[in-house]
Amino acid sequence: MNICVFLSAADLDDRYTRPAREFAELLGKGGHTLVWGGSDKGLMKVVADGVQESGGRLVGVSVDFLHEFVRPGADEMVIAKDLSERKALLLAKSDAVVIMVGGTGTLDEATEILELKKHALHTKPVVLLNTAGFYDGLKQQFLRMDEEGFLPVPLTDLVFFAEDGVGALAHLEESAGVR
User: Which residues, including other chains, have CB under 8 Å from residue 42's CB and lie 6 or more apart?
Assistant: First the structure.
């Protein structure tokens, strides 16, 4: 399965890097392909290292203004002209999406992917990986949107909230009929 992972390129502490590495190793050992932003720094590097060292493939989609950070040795690397094209390519090259910890770029990617799914412009499973409770506030906001009628489809049809990588991957494999 080609699994798109949206995540930070920042250098983060062990409470984020350790679970990210563990999830990456699960992807690689499972024979999955990581589709990611193509960066060779920060958490993006941690995940790419873990997938590649565990036998998985790497498909990167970077953007022109970040070309100096692309990972050498990826199985495939595409350079998009802008962030909009990058998001579209990441989604097109994937069978499922995992949203890991990140900043405004990751939040932008997450909300766009969910908005597209809300309008049935894709049907790929989306998992929000809530490492160390990072997305507790966002989860609460999504639940409020759902409860108060702001979502035209049930929240459970849009996104699955996982507390760890094992739960995230199990959901994706179940959704794809792998399990």
Answer: 8, 9, 10, 11, 12
pLDDT digits (tens, 9 = 90+) for 59-92: 999 999 998 999 999 999 999 999 999 999 999 9
The packing angle between helices 104-118 and 83-92, to 10°, is 60
> What are the tens digits of pLDDT across the range 136-166?
999 999 999 999 999 999 999 999 999 999 9
Cα separations (Å) of 119 from 115, 116, 158?
6, 5, 10
> Per the confidence metrics, is the pTM higher than 0.85?
yes
Name the DSSP class of 96: E
A 10 A CB-CB count for 66 gives 17
The residue ranking higher by pLDDT, 77 or 178, is 77
Residue from 169, 128, 161, 131 nearest 32 by CA: 169
Residues 6+ apart with CB under 8 A from 90: 4, 6, 35, 36, 37, 61, 109
Residue 2: Cβ within 10 Å count: 15
Q: Work out the burial of residue 118: count CB atoms within 10 Å of its CB; fewer than 13 is exposed, 13-18 middle, 19 or more buried.
A: middle
